[in-house]
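Lab notes, practical 5.
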Amino acid sequence: MKLQPLKVHAMKCGVKRQNGAVLVMCLVLLLVITLIAIAGLSGASDQVRMVNNAQQINTTFQTADSAMSQAITLIDGQPLGGIEGNSQILAAVIDAGINVPVVINSEQLSDDSISVYVTYTHQKNSALMTGVSLNADENTTLISRQQFIIQGSAIIESSGAHSTLRKGISYE
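Output from the prediction step:
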C-alpha cells in the first residue's frame, strides 16, 4: 500500500469582491448597540428620579407623623416617661377662636432641608350631660368637651415634596 499525499485545494477568498462589506456591517451593528445602551441609560436615570421622589415623600410623611405625635404627647403627656401634660397650647387655640388655625413651627424636627409645622384648630364645643338617670332633674352638670384638629405638615423646599396629616382629638 502506497501512501498518497492529500491534495489541499486553496480556496480563493474573493477579497477583491467584498470591498469593505464587513466593515459596514460592523459599524451598523455598533450603532444599533449604542442606541440600545443610550435608551437603557435614559430609562435608568428616570428610575433614579422616581426613587428619589418616593424617598422624599416618605421622609415628609414620616416627619409630619412625628410632628403630630409630638404635639399630642405635648398636650397629654406621658406619665410613665416623666412628661407632664401641657394644655397651654390648647388654651391659646381656644382663645384664637373656632376654626381659626394656629400654626406652630416644630423646631425640634425642622432642619435646613425640611420645614415642619403643627397646626391646631379649635372646632365646635359639644356638651355632654353627666349624672343622667331617670330622676335626675336636679344637680345635672354639663361638661364641655373641646374638639380640636391637629395637623402635621412637612415640606422639603428644594424639591417641593410635602405631606400633611390630620387628626381630630377631644379634650375634656
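Observations recorded by the TA: The first strand starts at residue 101 and ends at 105. Residues 24-133+142-171 form one domain.
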